[in-house]
Amino acid sequence: MRRILFLSLLSLLMFSCASKRYAKKAVELERAGLYQEAANLYYLSVKANRKNIDALIGLKKNGEMVLADKLNKFKSAWETRQIKEAVYAYREAKEYRDKLSAVGAELTIDSKYNTWYSNASSSYLSERYTEALGALNREDFSNALTIFTEILNIDSNYKDAKQKYTVAKFEPMYRAAIQDLNTGRFRKAYYSFVEVQNGAGEYKETSALLSQALEEATITILVVPFRTSSDGGVYNRNNFQTVVLNAIGNTQSPFYKVKDLSYINNKGVFFADGTIDLRKVSLDGIDAVISGDIKRFKVRRGKLHKKEKPAYLKIKKLKKNSDGTTSTYYEYKKVVYTEVKKDNAVHFQVDYKMVSTKTGDVLAADIVNESMTDRVHYGLYYGEKGELVPGYWKYKKSKSDEDKVYDDYSSRNRFDRMFRSKRSIKSVEDMRRDVLRNAANRIAQRVEMYNPEM
Question: Considering Cα of 50, then 55, then 60, then 63, what sign does the dihedral take?
């Protein structure tokens, strides 16, 4: 809480200092007669600190002169019948007035300017609307869109400009989508119709054409059980088939439907070698078949290895010196701790392909390798309390020249990390599930990347 308060106060102080710097410079510019530049700095000063009353007064004083210049520019354009220039000069003046009002410097525009602007904008918009209609009638959609955009920026409710804007923007897209639909580019047409529908709502026959494009673009895929020679083959191939079905079904693409053998009349659709009769499954509405071979499915379920290892218990001692003072020293007691190791691993390899039932062409194929390993390596010590340090000793009850104590920072740090290491290991069952899912996701991604229109 104190830190937040400190940061808030610091922020206020910084803004306050910035406000004063801007105001000081603004005063100098104002004295030099540079009221436009002074107004800009007064604005920055007030924006940095709304409580700077002197800066607010300075902003209003100099801002009024800047606004007067902008209104005079508008008046001159209006009186010389430069209609477009008059419209944009007034809009610039109004934007400036609104900008200053937003920070507390309220300025006003005389009603006569509002009346002149109303007349100017009415005349200008009428002229531009006629031009836009002409461009739209000539099917010059790009130019029409530019003009209708300008009209709506000036008056968002001008006549039927919104409806005409929609036509200018989405009619070219709608026509291009129909062209794509008629020439077999169904996916491209689908996305164009989606964009038209999102932007223009129910525009002409967009909904019906969108549905038609999606239906034509959709590929129905039959996923058959994967062949395998690995242990537990029947379980593995059927399980992996299910995972692949789910992975493809969960893709973001709207262009795929996935089926298993229950969808078709599978009597007589397999040849003697186990391959599928593409012609027969095509009659059941299948566009492509995914099949493959599980080349490897190796599981290593590691054993838990425990081994007693030598170490030392560092014990603090006090010694009374001859002069009556006390000093500290350390003794190292030989102890044992238990080192624990275990590792699990799963390795999976599958060779798959997606084949068109109409042409027999391979639409997608790959060899997928997925592996996952997990291991634990930690220490356990259940002896006397104290600081355990690494080392080696040959005999627990007697000394040896081979005895070593490694009581340096680096050795202790590595040793301590082993005792803080994780003690749970991912199960082989969980790893097998994750490996199958990862492999299936890679197949699904490859299928999703396939685009018959590329």
Answer: negative
Query: Measured between alpha carbons, how far is residue 297 from residues 234, 300, 375 in Å?
Result: 12, 10, 19
pLDDT at 322: 85
Residue 385, helix vs strand vs coil:
coil
Question: Residue 230 carries which DSSP code?
Answer: S
Beta bridge partners of 378: 340
Per the CB < 8 A criterion, the answer to whether 332 and 313 are in contact is yes
Q: Which of 173, 174, 161 is nearest to 135 (CA)?
A: 161
pLDDT tens digits, one per residue of 268-296: 788 877 788 899 999 999 999 999 999 99
pLDDT of residue 231: 53
Quote the strand ranges of 161-272, DSSP E. 219-223, 227-228, 256-259
CA–CA dist 28, 66 (Å, integer): 17
pLDDT of residue 236: 60
Q: What whole-number distance in Å separates Cα of residue 229 and Cα of residue 236? A: 10
Low-confidence ranges of the chain (pLDDT < 50): 1-15, 232, 234
H or E stretch covering 405: strand 404-405
Residue-wise DSSP of 299-318: EEE---EEEEEEEEEEEEEE
Q: Residue 169: what residue type?
A: K
Residue corresponding to tokens 């992975």: 247
Whether the CA torsion 93, 98, 99, 101 is positive or negative: it is positive
Neighbours of 337 (CB within 10 A): 21
Answer whether 358's CB lies under 8 Å from 286's CB. no
Which SS3 state, helix, strand or coil, does residue 171 take?
A: helix
